[in-house]
């Protein structure tokens, strides 16, 4: 085979400038920060390319509502608000315990959907998460670009194969971003607003069973609280980071519910098991991204942010998730700031997922 | 500030051979692989930084060669590992070496900087013709970034991004055909046919500049 042209190109390979230690250290810090704010990763999450790091709660928080809910009555205003305005009151402990709320949520669970393996679970949601970019140094000019943060907002519709065997789709519509409380809103925050992305969710090699979240795998999870609790801790096992097991177990609770349909038996078991995780308590006056008020059940994570599941105060249905600053220092944002918020708007079953033309961004990685 | 456990892939000692009846050494070898590190990171995300320590320099070198500004190369490298981190649950754990996967991600990100790359290639192609003649007289080993032959730069600029991605993974990143296929998620047969087509295109482009 004639390799001449390839060799020609190989010989013309330019020298590479060295990787500046500051840039390399910044990249590593960014990666470590991303890792620190996450439990077991969620593969379908995707952020705009402008953002270097996912929000603190990008993985930990967002919600699934088992029921078919109608759209929210109150749309959050799309306009940009000053940082101070997104600060809400500090969570007050609810008069009921987390065990009670989760117990009621477990009892309220009704079987609504029965997706077949060849169908898709379609979930519509609205989300707000932090977009972080690390401090960076331009090695040529020596200029320093500051660390930035803002809250990016989206409407998402996801079609996921019930048993992971068919290609799914994800539609992301970017809404107007907001300032991250305590931080100036950077220029790049506006870049994505108004854009709509369609992404393929290709069929990939299956994950280890303990990390799967497709409907077929959820159906096989234990339907009793004890078994489910063991699963929550098992999916976070051999982490090596001792002391974080409870955090990882709570993260897994969110991962199982988010943009998903948890079968009724497993959902009830999950709520009961979640109540046994140390540090989990209930607060009143939690609100989801659609402005629906409810009871928050959650715990404070290592980043100083309380991650709540938000339940309807009457029906105990899961409405969404939210993240709220509890430790100002660790979160680097004023106490009481709302830094993540989601609302699950509908969960239905679909026979097909919309076809998406080949996009560069998708893949199994 | 950051101590790098694995300064360079080349400097990383080879894994010890696995004795047929020695589960311990098998375990050691397994732990040393990228796949093992990625698997550990599923439960303990912090472990993923080990992958950065092993391969960041190599990915940065590749990005810096393809893009005309070092800041863009810094961005691509940082983003490559963040994307990899997010996608790590989908990593095929039977592939012990994660470099093809990382190169694949980096290639996509470099495509996002296509303007910077095209600018580089066009700028090089515009260099005075004397430089091209000069190039002929220099030994191949002395070719540097500035010495990328203008006609060749023009030829590269004329390729589709899919062709350029593949060609440069093979020619510059020195991936094998199998690794390049893995990086780009295409069958090995496609690698062969695409490279063959690319070679023809380059040859024609060079002839037209001759």
UniProtKB/TrEMBL annotation, chain A:
<protein>
    <recommendedName>
        <fullName>CU044_5270 family protein</fullName>
    </recommendedName>
</protein>
<dbReference type="InterPro" id="IPR047789">
    <property type="entry name" value="CU044_5270-like"/>
</dbReference>
UniProtKB/TrEMBL annotation, chain B:
<feature type="domain" description="RNA polymerase sigma factor 70 region 4 type 2">
    <location>
        <begin position="151"/>
        <end position="202"/>
    </location>
</feature>
<comment type="similarity">
    <text>Belongs to the sigma-70 factor family. ECF subfamily.</text>
</comment>
<feature type="domain" description="RNA polymerase sigma-70 region 2">
    <location>
        <begin position="51"/>
        <end position="119"/>
    </location>
</feature>
<keyword id="KW-0804">Transcription</keyword>
<dbReference type="InterPro" id="IPR007627">
    <property type="entry name" value="RNA_pol_sigma70_r2"/>
</dbReference>
<keyword id="KW-0238">DNA-binding</keyword>
<dbReference type="InterPro" id="IPR013325">
    <property type="entry name" value="RNA_pol_sigma_r2"/>
</dbReference>
<dbReference type="InterPro" id="IPR039425">
    <property type="entry name" value="RNA_pol_sigma-70-like"/>
</dbReference>
<dbReference type="GO" id="GO:0016987">
    <property type="term" value="F:sigma factor activity"/>
</dbReference>
<dbReference type="GO" id="GO:0000428">
    <property type="term" value="C:DNA-directed RNA polymerase complex"/>
</dbReference>
<keyword id="KW-0731">Sigma factor</keyword>
<dbReference type="InterPro" id="IPR013249">
    <property type="entry name" value="RNA_pol_sigma70_r4_t2"/>
</dbReference>
<dbReference type="GO" id="GO:0003677">
    <property type="term" value="F:DNA binding"/>
</dbReference>
<dbReference type="InterPro" id="IPR036388">
    <property type="entry name" value="WH-like_DNA-bd_sf"/>
</dbReference>
<dbReference type="InterPro" id="IPR014284">
    <property type="entry name" value="RNA_pol_sigma-70_dom"/>
</dbReference>
<dbReference type="GO" id="GO:0006352">
    <property type="term" value="P:DNA-templated transcription initiation"/>
</dbReference>
<dbReference type="Pfam" id="PF08281">
    <property type="entry name" value="Sigma70_r4_2"/>
</dbReference>
<dbReference type="InterPro" id="IPR013324">
    <property type="entry name" value="RNA_pol_sigma_r3/r4-like"/>
</dbReference>
<protein>
    <submittedName>
        <fullName>DNA-directed RNA polymerase sigma-70 factor</fullName>
    </submittedName>
</protein>
<keyword id="KW-0240">DNA-directed RNA polymerase</keyword>
<keyword id="KW-0805">Transcription regulation</keyword>
<dbReference type="Pfam" id="PF04542">
    <property type="entry name" value="Sigma70_r2"/>
</dbReference>
């Amino acid at each position: 085979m004639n390799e001449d042209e390839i060799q020609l190109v190989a010989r013309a390979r330019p020298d590479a400038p060295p990787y500046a230690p500051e840039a390399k250290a910044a990249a590593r810090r960014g990666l470590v920060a991303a890792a620190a704010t996450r439990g077991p990763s969620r593969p379908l999450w995707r952020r705009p390319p402008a953002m270097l790091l996912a929000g603190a709660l990008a993985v930990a928080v967002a919600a699934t509502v088992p029921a078919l809910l109608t759209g929210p009555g109150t749309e959050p205003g799309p306009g940009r608000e000053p940082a101070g305005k997104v600060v809400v009151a500090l969570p007050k402990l609810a008069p009921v315990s987390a065990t009670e709320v989760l117990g009621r949520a477990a009892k309220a669970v009704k079987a609504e959907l029965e997706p077949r393996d060849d169908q898709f679970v379609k979930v519509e949601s609205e989300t707000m998460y932090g977009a972080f970019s690390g401090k960076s140094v331009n090695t040529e000019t020596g200029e320093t670009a500051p660390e930035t943060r803002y809250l990016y907002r989206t409407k998402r519709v996801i079609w996921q194969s019930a048993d992971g065997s068919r290609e799914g789709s994800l539609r992301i519509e970017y809404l107007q971003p907001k300032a991250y409380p305590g931080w100036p809103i950077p220029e790049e925050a506006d870049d994505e607003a108004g854009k709509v992305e369609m992404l393929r969710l290709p069929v990939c090699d299956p994950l280890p069973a303990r990390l799967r979240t497709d409907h077929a795998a959820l159906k096989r999870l234990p339907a009793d609280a004890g078994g489910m609790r063991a699963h929550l801790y098992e999916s976070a096992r051999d982490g090596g980071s001792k002391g974080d097991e409870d955090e990882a177990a709570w993260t897994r609770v969110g991962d199982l519910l988010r943009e998903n349909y948890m079968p009724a038996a497993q959902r009830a078991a999950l709520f009961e098991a979640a109540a046994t995780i140390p540090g989990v308590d209930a607060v009143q006056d939690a609100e989801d991204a659609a402005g629906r008020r409810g009871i928050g059940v959650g715990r404070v994570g290592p980043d100083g942010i309380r991650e709540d599941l938000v339940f309807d105060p009457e029906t105990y249905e899961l409405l969404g998730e939210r993240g709220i600053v509890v430790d100002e220092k660790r979160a680097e944002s004023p106490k009481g700031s709302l830094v993540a918020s989601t609302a699950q708007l509908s969960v239905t079953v679909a026979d097909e997922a919309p076809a998406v033309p080949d996009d560069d961004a998708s893949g199994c990685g | 500030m950051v101590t790098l456990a694995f300064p360079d892939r080349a400097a990383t000692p080879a894994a010890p051979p696995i004795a047929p009846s020695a589960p311990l050494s098998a375990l050691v070898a397994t732990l040393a692989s990228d796949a093992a590190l990625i698997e550990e990171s599923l439960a303990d995300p912090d472990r993923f930084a080990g992958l950065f320590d092993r391969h960041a320099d190599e990915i940065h070198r590749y990005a810096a060669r393809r893009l005309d500004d070092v800041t863009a190369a810094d961005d691509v490298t940082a983003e490559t590992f963040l994307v990899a981190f997010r996608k790590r649950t989908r990593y095929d754990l039977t592939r012990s070496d994660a470099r093809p996967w990382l190169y694949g991600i980096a290639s996509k990100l470099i495509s996002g900087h296509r303007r910077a790359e095209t600018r580089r290639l066009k700028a090089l192609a515009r260099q005075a013709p004397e430089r091209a003649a000069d190039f002929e007289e220099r030994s191949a080993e002395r070719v540097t970034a500035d010495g990328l032959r203008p006609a060749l730069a023009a030829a590269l600029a004329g390729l589709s991004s899919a062709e350029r991605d593949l060609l440069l993974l093979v020619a510059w990143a020195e991936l094998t055909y199998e690794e390049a296929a893995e990086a780009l998620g295409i069958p090995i047969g496609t690698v062969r046919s695409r490279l063959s087509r690319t070679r023809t295109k380059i040859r024609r482009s060079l002839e037209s500049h001759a």
